[in-house]
Amino acid sequence: MASCLYFGQVMHEREQPVAYKFVYQTVSIKVDIDQIEQEAKDSPLLSLNRFNWVSLRFKDHGPRDGTSWRTWVDGFLAGYDVARPARVELLCYPRILGYSFNPLAVWYAYDADNQLVALIAEVSNTFGQWHHYVLKPEGRTGTIKAEADKMFHVSPFIDMQARYHFRLKCPADQVFTYIKETREGRPFFYASQSGRQQPLNTKTLLKLLGFAPWRALKVISLIHWWALKIWLKGGQFHPTPKHLESVNYSHSEMKLC
Question: Is the pLDDT of residue 27 over 70?
Answer without folding.
Answer: yes
